[in-house]
């Protein structure tokens, strides 16, 4: 199964991605302090449930699907951390205003890309298997592996989470052996080296404008 919307620059993931309506879970009903695997399951199944239960999103209305992602999936993420790590060393040299714009534009790219991926699953019935969380680089880092089964095909997707004051948050996704942050870090570094931080902001802004057109 190929989720063509979820890949670098057309991405999404963060990407990003991966879901089934085994249970309907509204964000307000979920324990934000849940274990990493429970949080990933709630995030994934909550958003796909909403998309599959609404006639407008089931019909493929991308704006409506994007709105669902913003409401149902975004609260489970730390895309601020994703942005900082993807921008790399240039983040420290950026002004506060540049940092704010980078995070806004990169988050917009990730959300829309994830919505594009989900639109491909709106009328399908993929099955998901969640592996027990594995320790990451430290006690505040965890990786949850998933197997996505759809129409006889299988895809492995790993979610990396960080522990925050508000509970575990998804900040990186691995699809087909590539971590989202690593892929974007290389691409962003090339743009910054050539055009500076403002050039990266322009690149992201233009990319988002084309996607919204």
TrEMBL record:
It holds the Pfam family MlaC. InterPro entries: MlaC/ttg2D. Transmembrane segments: none annotated. It comes from the Bacteria. Gene3D superfamilies: 3.10.450.50, phospholipid-binding protein. This is ABC-type transporter MlaC component.
